[in-house]
Structure formats: C-alpha cells, structure tokens
Amino acid sequence: VWMGKIKIGGTHSKAVLVSAEGHILAETDGPCTNHWLVGVDNCINGINDMVQRAKIKAGLDPDTPVCSLGMSLSGGEQKAAIQKLIDDMRERYPKLSQSYFITTDAIGAMATASDYGGIVVISGTGSNCKLVNPDGTQVGCGGWGHMMGDEGSAYWISHLAIKTFFDARDNLVTSPHDINYVKKAMEEYFQVSDLMGMLPHLYRIFQKSHFAGFCRKLAEGGSAGDALCQHVFTEAGKALARHIVAVLPKVHQDLFSGELGLPVLCVGSVWRSWELMKSGFAQVLSEAQAHGYSHFQKYSLLTLRQSSALGGAKMGAKNAGASLPLDYSANVNVFFSHTFNQ
Amino acid sequence: VWMGKIKIGGTHSKAVLVSAEGHILAETDGPCTNHWLVGVDNCINGINDMVQRAKIKAGLDPDTPVCSLGMSLSGGEQKAAIQKLIDDMRERYPKLSQSYFITTDAIGAMATASDYGGIVVISGTGSNCKLVNPDGTQVGCGGWGHMMGDEGSAYWISHLAIKTFFDARDNLVTSPHDINYVKKAMEEYFQVSDLMGMLPHLYRIFQKSHFAGFCRKLAEGGSAGDALCQHVFTEAGKALARHIVAVLPKVHQDLFSGELGLPVLCVGSVWRSWELMKSGFAQVLSEAQAHGYSHFQKYSLLTLRQSSALGGAKMGAKNAGASLPLDYSANVNVFFSHTFNQ
C-alpha cells in the first residue's frame, strides 16, 4: 500500500510517494499544474506523469494504482471544479490511484505541521492566508490570484518594484528611493531596454511564474543594500502581516496560549527573504496587538522541514480510511518568536 | 480622393470616410481591433472590413483604394510593431489604401481639437495622458494597460469597487462605505453568487472590455446616491488629475495663457460621469497649483463634438501630402472651467 501526495504550485509541482508506515519512497518534480493557469488537461497529464515516474523511481509496478492520492493546490476549495478534476482523472488514468483527495495548499501545509491548528501564510508565486482553529474550522484571507490580491507574494513584490519604476519615469508617483538598481535588474531579467519593452511581458507573453521570478533579483538587491529593494520587501512583510491581522478576530483563544504563542506556519519561497520583511511584518502585528488583542502576547513563525505534500498524503489516506502517523515536531522548525511588551 | 480614418478602441472601433473637402461620407463601426488585445491578424481583418463597408455605404467602388488611411490606436507609438502592421496591411489588402499613417488615440484626438496643443486625458476602457506642446513635442503619462496602470479608467474603477468588496469580505481592508450596492450590482452584472464565482471573470474568461463595462453600473449607483460608487469615481477623478499634474512641469508657458487657461481635452466614456469625478479631480489640481505653479491660473475641460478619427484623417492626409481643413471651434465643446483663487 503506497500513497501519493502532490503539491501543486504556481511555478512547479512536487509528488511524493509514501509507504503505509509514512516513509518517503520517491519524490518527483513537475511543471506548474494549477488547473486555473494551465487548464484541466495539462493539469491531469502533469499529475499522472509525476506519479507514474515516482512509482518507477521507487521500483514499483506503474500499472498498480496507489491506494490514495492526496493533492494540495491553490483553488482547492472550489468543490465543483475539484470534483470534475477527480472524475476526469479516474476516467483518463484508471491505473493512477484508487481514491482521490484534494485540498488547498494551505491546508496541506497545516496538516504537515500540526493537527491542532494555527495560521498558515503562503507567499510563493502568489499569496494566501488560512486560519485553522483547533476545532477544524477555517477562515481565509486572500488567495484570489494576481488580478485581485496576492499581496506580499513574489508576483506582488516584482510588480511593486516595476510599478514604482514606471510611476517614477512617468512622474506620476515619486519613488521613495533611487530606482537605478531596479531599473538595471529589470532590464537584465526581462531582457528589455525600455518601459515599452516590458509590455509583452505584461500582456502577450505574460507568465505569472516568470514575472514573479524577478523577485529573486530584488531579494539579491535588498541583501546587497539597495534601499528600494529593501523597501518592497518591507512592504511585503506588512502585507503578509495584514493577512494575519485580518483573521485575528476569528482565532480561537486556545491558539494563543501554547508555548509558541500564536503559531504561524510560513510556506513559500518568499519567506527565505524573512530578514528583509521582518521590520514591516513585526510593525503591523505590534500595531494590531496594541489595538485590542490583550490575549495575543506572543507569536512564533514556523517553516516546514518536510514537503507540505506529507500533510496532503495524510489527509488523502484518512479520506481512504487509512491513517498515516506523522511526527509533527520533526516536520517543523521555529525560525522567529516575538513576545510583545507588557 | 477620399480619406479613411479609424479610431481603434479597447472595446469598439470606428471608421470614418472623409472627402478631400473634409466632409464625412460614411461611418462604420467594428469590434475591438487593438492588435495588443486581439492579435495582428484580427486587427488587420477588422480594419479592412470597416473601411470596405464604409466605401460601399458611401456608394464608392470598394476596389479603389482610399488616398490615405489614418489610424489612431493605443500603443501607436511603438514604431516596429506599427511598421509591421502597415506592411501586413499593404500585402494582404492592396485595394485598401494608397498610404497609411498610424498615431496614438491621444494624438488623433488632439489633432481633431487643435493644432496648438494641450493635454489629452483619455479615460475609456483604459486610461492615458499626453501633453502636446505648441512646438509639437509630446510628454506622456500612463497608457501602460491594466497590468501596470490604467488609473482612473473604466477598468480601474470597476476593479477598485470589486477589490473594495473582496477586501471587506476578507476583513483585510475596511470599506469606507456600505458595500451592498456594489455587491448586488457585481452579482447581477457578472451573474455570480459569491466571490469564488468572480475568479473565471478575472482569469480564464477575463475580457478587459467586459470587466470595464461594470463601470456603467457603478455610475448608475453613484448617480442614485450610493456612497461607495461615488467614492470610486471621486478616486478616479483624483487619479486622472494626477496624470495632468505629472506632465505639468513640462507644459510650455504659452499653453497656460490662452483664454481657456490650460486646455485639457477629455476623451472616453468615463468622462460622461464627470459630475461624480469632479470633486476629486478639482482637489488634486488645486493642491498642485497651490504647491508652486503660479502661472497656472485657470484650466478648461473640453470634449470632442466630432469623432477623434477626424484628427487621424487629417494627419493621414498630411502624411500623404494633402491637407484637410478642419474647423476646430466646431469640433470641441468646453464643459468645465475653473479659475484658481488668487
């Protein structure tokens, strides 16, 4: 009995094959398989390809379906779309899996870290925040994609830096800092020589993941001391913290009272730039705490040491009537804690 | 000798056939033919179709090319793309026109209103601002499309209202006013029952012109007294005025000193909601004037009484060595004037 678990991201996807005892047998990578971005057909083909390669890599028979396939993807709460995805997978690839379970990337991550709950803040290509209370109830903020949010994500950071440059050139808004590093980095990353050259990257050949990838250059600039790069990451820290503040009123009392204070699980590549976001993030949470959350005394930021696919596999197994033991303490790492001044 | 002139918009296009004496012989309409949005092939086919229908409507031989074809479209400053468009048109439809001229929608509008210059502020599906000085030099602000600007446009107004609703629901940002009118109008216009339902309209089936069309419902709400609708239009007024402030430092002294003060040519359907935008617009210009433009004593807002295609035809004719006399005073209408307090 093996269980597959797939994490579907805006830029790339990851499949993990797990034994009934919870051991990882094989991992495979794939391209972006988000059905919102690539369509249902590409999504299904990509998933099948990753799982079949994982079976072969683990030395298993590719014609024998896995016991369950747990998938986490953004947009995983849309019931009708998800059911269609599962129906199509069953029909097209009957040897893929016996049962299917789909959840959001946030819930998959949370299930990897804890069965008690907390707040998940995702900032990768896009961004999203989900509160999971100890009783299992969920409250979300964000996750609407780049056209209606994604605040604090790699896409948003890239966009903010480039928009600051456009507005400065147009004399529409004065940039808070020198724009030369961002200008040069943009010209190099997108291979353009002027603002006009950016238009295809914004429209005809726009690819969210490529656009968001510019964030890495900005992180390099910020680490090297460029003030505008540091500014956009500080703003991202504020934006991500605002997602937490948005769900604070719905946080169950018990989630504040553990040893770690409010546990915030941080998922996605943007969190690698935590040092650049820290001041903005801490400022917004301190302001919120000071304005009426007296029971909010401490928070801790956690990262996953294991792929969030593990939680997806666990939930998939549970859905199929099996249980997958997870050692939560081995799965997470506390990278920041803050206790507010009394 | 007849001259065609085409105005290419984000939502629809218009062709006008003009005699050598400047009389309009026929007008035809077509769909959006912006090559950035619909591709070069659809653009060329759409243009040919409109011109040929205009020839037939005017009782002229469709196989005889017009003398010149002047076209105004957003993105008309991109030399390489424009040359390719012209080359493709010549090759595919040799009976279309003898000569071609392409300019931006802003410059086409300005050429219809005046040969002395002024500031054009376009707010239709998208937005754009262009200063044309008496010596012909141009300075632009905006016009980068919905991914990087379009502030104050119908798209932007629609987006601002919907984003305000999303953020209120997420508890991310408190709405300044009751959201119920916007909620109901959105559900009705997009035929959705919740926020999730908006996702296809933002991504898979996103059409800028349809999304921007929601602005009409907001204008209705604003006129009927809804505070949030009024708020988004006030913000649009501010945003459009900021485009003018952006080019103010480059305005030639002489443009301030005419009878009308600084002439601002207002183009596009959003200006029909001027009454809703007025307070925000006037506020931003007053603030800018108070902060160091002592020679900026008065401004007047003008609309075109004739299609901006007329200016495009004039420029196309000029490019072909002909001249098309225009009675500018008959082409414009002053709908607002303001003199600052001394």
From TrEMBL, chains A, B:
It is an enzyme of class 2 (transferase). Its EC number is 2.7.1.59. Belongs to the eukaryotic-type N-acetylglucosamine kinase family. Residues 8-276 form the ATPase BadF/BadG/BcrA/BcrD type domain. This is N-acetyl-D-glucosamine kinase. GO terms for molecular function: N-acetylglucosamine kinase activity. It comes from Sinocyclocheilus rhinocerous. The gene is nagk. Pfam families: BcrAD_BadFG. SUPFAM superfamilies: Actin-like ATPase domain.
